[in-house]
Amino acid sequence: MMRKSGCSTFLNEPSMIPLFLVLLHVSASWAAADSVYATFVHCLSKQTNQQVSHILYAQTNASYTSVLRAYIRNSRLNTSSTRKPVIIVTPTQESHVQAAVICSKSIGLQIRTRSGGHDFEGISYISDVPFILLDMFNLRSINIDLKEQTVWVGAGATFGELYYRIWEKSKVHGFPASICPTVGVGGHISGAGYGNMLRKHGLSVDHVIDARIVDAKGRILDKASMGEDLFWAIRGGGGASFGVILSYKLNLVPVPKTVTIFRVERTLEEKATDIVYKWQQVATTTDDNLFMRLLLQPVSSKLKKGEMTVRASIITLFLGNAEQLVSLLGKEFPELGLKKENVTETSWIGSVVWWANFDIGTSPDVLLDRNPDSADFLRRKSDYVQKPISKDGLNWLWKKMIMSGKTGLVFNPYGGKMSEIPASATPFPHRAGNLFKIQYSLSWEEEGVVADKNHTAQIRTLFSYMTPFVSKNPRRAFLNYRDLDIGVNRNDKNSYEEGKVYGVKYFNDNFNRLVKVKTAVDPDNFFTNEQSIPVLPRFHSGVSGRSTSILSSLKLVGASMWTMLFANLLNI
């Protein structure tokens, strides 16, 4: 079950607030929220010509908390002080999404759109201003056409569901996307998500052939009606900056009937440094059918009691049989000493289940488990490496990893198909010239502010230590490993300059084209968040001011600190 954050302790003298004033302002807050809810319901009903109460959850609804928590995948973002949506909308029809956009815009509330809830910074379900959460989990239809070798998949579907439905229809087709089965399709694809077939087939967005999106005017657009620029932008530029993604049409990819998997581990005492150094030379240049992910983790040494070491783990998918794989790595990576008994042949769907951390032979049915209301506390960051790290550099890195705490590093090799596709083909620019991508990974179980600060400091320290080894000018980052440390947009008159800070890190030379598309399709900047694509400066209309009246009524803005306190306690 999801863990709750510790209680807030910032109020030292509650007796200083007269009880009748407390009750007065609490009552007024709920009244304001009820008024907004009533206005929204009336608008939504009018727009859809339907009864809509069954898809709406006000904060007073008994199911509100369970619906909100179901797809929060980071406990760090589920505290008593985390801002909660004024209303949760759970559309079951595309027209519900259209109406939600129109009505949110008319009453001056922001929209946040959640597909699977895996945004590492929670941008899909939290905001500093009053907002409506559009929770897409009901829009998860999957329609496969094997003759076309395509699939239409709803934004609210998970990849576990997509992989399972493909497997039901065909044992020789797959799709190159997330290894985590609970990740939502909408956010993953719109942010250029990847999987363990990226060296063979590229990114998920490289196989998108159509899409349906609700724009800022409430219109449903497909590839033909949205035009090439917007279609380009939502294939890696983050859909939430441009509208609400309803569904994507994807090309399936061929997979062999037999694939091969293995995992090997070495510590520093077992010559892990040599393994990691050689991995950098082999993993990005080897056969395109081979993907070798490298995990680096500080662990307790089994050979030297009381001391720490670093463990290197190589996790592999090979689109071929065991004999081919053992022969290949025997020539290219003899340091592994790989033998046939070290590897396992399975089906593609079997490899999907294994990569999702289930035992070999586990039924694919587990991929249908959405595992709601489950999360750890976590922090993630990203980097790109364009030159191999020397052995001296690796030895220095081991010391810093052990010194800085528990943060692990995940190296994902590029090359293959990734080097063949131009950087401008989609908004995702990190193609040729990048050896591998790094994910900084830190998870913990302790609740509270102190634990959060300590772990945040750990991952930031290691990120700083890595500066000499990673890309520069800009130091590149991956949008789907959302990281607010690299820049935040307050969406005021400086929106473009603030957006450029993180924009060039995520998108490099593609940032300016994204800004032009954004300005053309959403000039009022309705679809905005802390790291959205900004509009050009001359088009900025002070978007944050649109919510002033709502913000005032919900927060009961006043001069005294206790007024703001109760707005926080009400989570509005």
UniProtKB/TrEMBL annotation:
InterPro entries: BBE, FAD-bd_PCMH, Oxid_FAD_bind_N. Keywords: Disulfide bond, FAD, Flavoprotein, Glycoprotein, Signal. Transmembrane segments: none annotated. Its cofactor is FAD. One of its GO terms (biological process) is cannabinoid biosynthetic process. Residues 81-255 form the FAD-binding PCMH-type domain. The keyword Glycoprotein applies. Residues 1-33 form the signal peptide. One of its GO terms (molecular function) is oxidoreductase activity. Belongs to the oxygen-dependent FAD-linked oxidoreductase family. This is FAD-binding PCMH-type domain-containing protein. It comes from Carya illinoinensis. The lineage of its organism: Eukaryota, Viridiplantae, Streptophyta, Embryophyta, Tracheophyta.
